């Protein structure tokens, strides 16, 4: 099953589809995509032809739930904070955070919170003038199908196509990058806090596995670094990325596990994350999340 979720996944999908930024034409981007599929190593060396992959909050939170993590409402961005978000930048980045919160509530079937956070997502989407018609429809369908995960995934898949078309047509890739970053920061805030609390390998592994994701996020934001607010956000994300530079891949997860270190359990490459590195990442992500939401 494809794991995606509402607004954050919509913007992440747009980033993937539109890698290379607004300076490229349609044909050139298609050529880049073809080259990426043929030779991943060559594409990785050329920033304009890399397909940036930012996991959705739903994907991340599903691992949390499977690992036994319980719902923690205290981690959510308070719904009343929405009144503080007056600039377009603040609205965009917190459209990301509230979308991640909505993912968390939906996965754990917190119906009362789902309705509240869905309202915030809808309000910010409308405030950013992102085709309110289909967003309203998606919101209504999600309410009706909130207890059916398969239906939710189908609804979101259809919405992704609509959002992709709308945002590409309106050349709003910078908003895409900001919302995606907001969602990633919120998701990281959740998993880093829960990992630090539980010390469960699977959850710590989620934190460690963000090593390559944060690198991709830096590349995305660099495309819009001429905008002052994005430039500031980029520097904060780079600070988190710097911690990950010390996170090394491990060849044998079972043999590499020690008392002093926690080893991630990833789908492909696994990474070793020390307790000190986990705490450092938690401190930096908490500071950035506080900066974005308060």
List descriptors.
disordered N terminus, mainly alpha, 294 residues, 14 helices, three-stranded antiparallel β-sheet
What does this entry show, briefly?
The protein is mainly α.
- SSE-based structural type: mainly alpha
| Number of helices, where a helix is a run of at least 4 consecutive DSSP H or I residues | 14
Shape: globular
β-strand amount: under 5%
Distance between the termini: 35 Å
Largest beta sheet: strand ordering: 1-3-2
SSE topology string: HHHHHHHHHHHHEHEEH
Biggest sheet descriptor: 3 strands, antiparallel
Percentage of residues in helical conformation: 55-70%
Mean pLDDT: 75
Number of domains: 1
Number-wise, the strands total 3
Radius of gyration: 18 Å
List unreliable stretches of 5+ residues: 1-52, 252-267
Note down, in words, how this protein is organized:
This protein is mainly alpha-helical and 294 residues long. The protein has one domain. It is built from 14 helices and three strands. Helix 5 runs antiparallel to helix 6, helix 6 runs antiparallel to helix 7 and helix 11 runs antiparallel to helix 12. The longest helix has 26 residues. The two termini are 35 Å apart.
């Amino acid at each position: 099953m494809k794991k995606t979720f509402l607004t954050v996944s919509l913007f992440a999908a747009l980033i993937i589809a539109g890698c290379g930024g607004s300076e490229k034409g349609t044909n050139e981007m298609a050529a880049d995509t073809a080259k990426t599929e043929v030779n991943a190593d060559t594409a990785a060396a050329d920033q304009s032809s890399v397909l940036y992959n930012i996991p959705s909050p739903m994907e991340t939170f599903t691992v949390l739930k499977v690992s036994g993590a319980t719902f923690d409402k205290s981690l959510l961005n308070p719904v009343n904070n929405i009144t503080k978000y007056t600039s377009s930048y603040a609205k965009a980045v917190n459209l990301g955070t509230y979308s991640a919160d909505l993912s968390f509530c939906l996965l754990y079937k917190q119906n009362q919170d789902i309705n509240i956070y869905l309202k915030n997502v809808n309000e910010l989407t409308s405030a950013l003038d992102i085709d309110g018609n289909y967003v309203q429809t998606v919101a209504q369908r999600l309410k009706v199908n909130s207890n059916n995960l398969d239906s939710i995934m189908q609804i979101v898949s259809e919405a992704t196509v609509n959002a992709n078309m709308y945002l590409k047509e309106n050349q709003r890739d910078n908003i895409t990058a900001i919302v995606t970053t907001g969602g990633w920061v919120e998701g990281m805030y959740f998993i880093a806090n829960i990992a630090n609390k539980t010390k469960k390998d699977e959850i710590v592994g989620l934190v460690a596995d963000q090593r390559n994701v944060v690198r991709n996020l830096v590349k995305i934001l660099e495309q819009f670094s001429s905008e002052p607010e994005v430039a500031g956000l980029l520097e904060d994300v780079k600070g988190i990325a710097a911690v990950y530079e010390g996170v090394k891949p491990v060849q044998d997860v079972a043999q590499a596990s020690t008392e002093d270190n926690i080893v991630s359990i990833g789908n492909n490459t696994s990474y070793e994350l020390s307790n000190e590195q986990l705490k450092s990442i938690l401190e930096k992500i908490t500071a950035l999340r506080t900066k974005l939401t308060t």
